């Protein structure tokens, strides 16, 4: 569904990614792992078109989208729940969700809202609450819920467990597993290697702007280098 072919990019003229190649098939949950500054968010920026490519190609459903604008990529069914969440703090939970489906007809918007509330009952309980009064975990649910309101075919999620207590991090990752089990294609960025691998089909490990390792999540969990460098075993 999504393929990156030798993608290089960076900020202004500072190169940060070097020949990054990866793919995500329809229905897969794939993790992009790596330490702080490895280039994970930058990779998502290249996929969403926020950063211009220095080289390489991004393909979605078999067609190059390298020349497609940020707005139009979203229209193709590619959506991100960003690292610095896209939540409007002075709007309610419901307001945030509705505004993410702006322009969508009422019936369809209601269906999407119900689906998000089914997935995250906590959000339904807090439907009238202002977003800036949500806990970190609830706010992350709202971030992902808002992305789902755009009814994507593929969802990119950037470090959903960042800053959350271990139990909340577990909750949010199992909710992502649920979303995946319902058929969504997901590219998940995480530093929480152990938990991410436990819910993923496959994974890529980045270091210094390059892909260092890739494989089936099960195999990576038993990989000596992954265990030493990322699992502390
Ligand atoms: N706006 C920017 N301008 C210049 N350099 C940047 C910018 N954003 C990120 N970088 C640099 O690009 C490199 C990769 O950063 P990136 O944010 O992609 O890492 P990351 O893997 O997402 O890390 P983290 O897990 O901390 O979010 C880092 O060296 C970072 O300092
Ligand atoms: Mg990041």
UniProtKB/TrEMBL annotation:
Family, per entry: Belongs to the ABC transporter superfamily.
Keyword line: Amino-acid transport, ATP-binding, Nucleotide-binding, Transport
Entry protein name: ABC transporter ATP-binding protein
Taxonomy of the source species: Archaea, Methanobacteriati, Methanobacteriota, Stenosarchaea group, Halobacteria
UniProt GO BP: amino acid transport
PROSITE patterns found in the cross-reference section: ABC_TRANSPORTER_1, ABC_TRANSPORTER_2
GO molecular function: ATP binding
Domain of life of the source: Archaea
Source organism of this protein record: Halomarina halobia
């Amino acid at each position: 569904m999504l393929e990156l072919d030798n993608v290089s990019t960076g900020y202004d003229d500072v190169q940060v990614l070097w020949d990054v190649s990866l793919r995500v098939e329809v229905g897969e949950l794939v993790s992009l792992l790596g330490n702080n500054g490895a280039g994970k968010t930058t990779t998502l920026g290249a996929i969403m078109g926020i950063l211009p490519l220095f080289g390489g190609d991004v393909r979605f459903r078999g067609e190059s989208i390298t020349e497609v604008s940020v707005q139009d990529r979203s229209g193709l069914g590619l959506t991100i729940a960003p690292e610095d969440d896209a939540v409007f703090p002075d709007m309610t939970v419901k307001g945030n969700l509705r505004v993410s489906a702006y322009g969508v007809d009422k019936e369809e918007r209601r269906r999407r809202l119900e689906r998000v509330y089914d997935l995250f009952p906590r959000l339904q309980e807090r439907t009238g609450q202002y977003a800036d009064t949500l806990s970190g975990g609830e706010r992350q649910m709202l971030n992902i819920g808002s992305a789902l309101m755009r009814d994507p075919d593929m969802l990119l999620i950037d470090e959903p467990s960042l800053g959350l207590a271990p139990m909340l991090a577990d909750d949010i990752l199992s909710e992502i597993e649920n979303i995946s089990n319902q058929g969504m294609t997901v590219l998940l960025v995480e530093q929480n290697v152990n938990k991410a691998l436990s819910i993923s089909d496959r994974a890529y490990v980045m270091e210094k702007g390059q892909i260092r390792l890739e494989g089936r999540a099960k195999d990576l969990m038993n990989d000596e280098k992954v265990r030493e460098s990322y699992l502390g075993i």
